[in-house]
Design goal:
about 300 residues, alpha/beta, 5 helices, elongated, signal
Length: about 300
């Protein structure tokens, strides 16, 4: 039985944006933290338990072989066990989906022909979209989307924010702390230096606090007694600069690990253990802290 995603607030759409940009040459050499399985010819139809959240996958009646093969491989991805139960339906004509292009990055959103009981369910639509994107209830993907793109968009539903610089339309809310959804991998501060008390309070609020033994691992103490934020490079899990809010003055964004992850460059295919454990904790109903630290 897979955990439900319904505990994640529908305000999640604020942090859902575009695909991660292509990685630099040195990032492409990063090894995945889990093995990719060979592609299969078709996606198996899952049997959902009564308590599973159903996620509807929309596929065209013809030309869906790449998507089917990718969905088969998805079953072995580490995020698959955290997401809902995929159920499949087909459409004969893309016009049935009533998709329109919106936003700075030309994302598609579809006005699907749904029954009233399906309006609050989640839907994944494979169509002629040029790029993938996600909102609180809907993911739209190209028919040839690869597994790393699919995982990146599903991760948004699980509560993970982009670790590359957000577009201005998303950053204006998210980077000012105006969001009600979980933000499992990015926290915000108003300063790069905190007092010892402020740093310990930040540690208490981290979604990944259980992976950090001591609050002093989050920064370097200065001569004046203040703490400069940022863990030592040798620290496996701590506080490291994220590019999420790099475009917003006076706001600093931080992530749990120093390495590139799939939330910054989806092609690196790196899902650190601390990310998976934090998502599991959320689904078990653990109380998440307020991640917007207002220390000046």
């Amino acid at each position: 039985m897979k955990p439900s995603l319904t505990s994640i607030n529908t305000g999640l759409s604020l942090l859902l944006g575009c695909l991660a940009i292509a990685p630099p040459a040195n990032a492409a050499a990063s090894l995945p933290e889990w093995p990719l399985a060979p592609a299969a010819s078709a996606a198996a139809v899952a049997t959902c338990d009564a308590t599973d959240e159903k996620i509807w996958v929309w596929l065209p009646q013809h030309g869906d072989a790449p998507a089917q093969a990718m969905l088969q491989r998805w079953q072995q991805h580490p995020l698959a066990a955290l997401s809902g139960c995929l159920q499949y339906r087909t459409y004969s004509d893309a016009e049935q989906l009533q998709c329109t292009v919106n936003g700075e990055r030309q994302h598609q959103r579809c006005n699907l022909p749904l029954l009233p009981r399906e309006l609050l369910q989640r839907h994944i639509v494979f169509t002629d979209a040029e790029i993938g994107s996600a909102s609180a209830q809907q993911i739209v993907l190209p028919l040839n989307a690869n597994l790393t793109v699919f995982a990146h968009e599903i991760a948004h539903w699980l509560g993970f924010a982009d670790e590359y610089q957000m577009s201005p339309s998303l950053a204006k809310n998210y980077c000012q702390g105006r969001y009600e959804h979980p933000s499992l991998n990015v926290v915000l501060t108003r300063s790069k230096q905190l007092s010892a008390q402020e740093l310990e309070q930040l540690w208490q609020r981290l979604p990944w606090r259980e992976a950090i033994a001591d609050w002093r691992l989050l920064g370097q103490q200065q001569a004046d007694g203040k703490w400069l934020l940022g863990s030592a490079s040798s620290t496996e899990v701590g506080l490291f600069t994220s590019q999420t809010c790099a475009g917003v003055a006076g706001v600093y964004s931080w992530k749990p690990v120093a390495k590139l992850t799939a939330m910054e460059y989806h092609d690196v295919n790196v899902w650190p253990t601390v990310y998976l454990e934090t998502a599991r904790a959320l689904q078990r109903g653990s109380r998440l802290r307020n991640h917007d630290d207002g220390a000046e």
